[in-house]
Amino acid sequence: MNSSYTKFTITAAEMAKYIDHTLLKPDATVDEIDKLCEQAIKYGFKAVCVNSGSIARVSGKLLGSGVDVCSVVGFPLGAIHTSVKAFEAKKAIEDGARELDMVLNIGALKSADLKTVDVDIRTVRRVSENPVVLKVIIETCLLTEEEKIRACKIAKKAGADYVKTSTGFSGGGATVEDVVLMRSVVGPTMGVKASGGIKDFATASAMIAAGANRIGAGAGVTIISSAPNQANR
């Protein structure tokens, strides 16, 4: 980690508002999903992010709490048909999702089929109009620097609200260097979400200092608990 990004100062309470508290493993139980929601309310996290099949339950648990509901779409591979992504997105919104984290078509991007990548994102955007927040996962660990730049530019042009580093399912997660690159490409107003492998307060702080304005993590409670000054919670 670049040490120049470790001097950023943020309180635990402020950090909580950056965190999408996440549980995406295939064997997640109902009790674990419920606990995730309870923790999000207790700590004041920005959102709870789960697979689309759990959105209706999560929406009910978080009703009136101020915690947003986020569904992944086309997760974790991004390789399903665009129409299926659109259907999943629409259903998640009907069930209460107000944020979507979609995986772009990584194979199309690496094949330089940029039209397919663009149409994929635009199609999901059409069924998730504002105020629904659309984040596009570009899966940085599978991309060259040139591909990362292309992915960010396409996502921005297609109307996404955020670009996101990773699913956490492809052998790599967020890095400070990728966040810096993504921020430099999308500019100051589009969102950048760092996700994958962020497990402590110092790492999360470094990502924010590098340009992230959202953190995706299954270790949200651990991140807050490892804050240097718990009096700020």
Can you characterise this structure?
This protein has a single domain, classed as TIM Barrel. It starts with 11 loop residues before the first helix and ends in an 8-residue tail after the last helix. The protein has helices spanning 12-16, 30-43, 55-62, 82-94, 106-110, 114-126, 145-157, 176-186, 201-210, 220-225, and strands at residues 19-23, 47-50, 68-73, 99-103, 133-137, 162-164, 191-195, 214-217. The mean pLDDT is 95. Strands 1-2-3-4-5-6-7-8 form an eight-stranded parallel β-barrel, surrounded by seven helices. With 233 residues, it is of the alpha/beta class. The radius of gyration is 16 Å and the shape is globular.
Summarize the structure.
With 233 residues, the protein is an alpha/beta fold. It contains ten helices and eight strands.
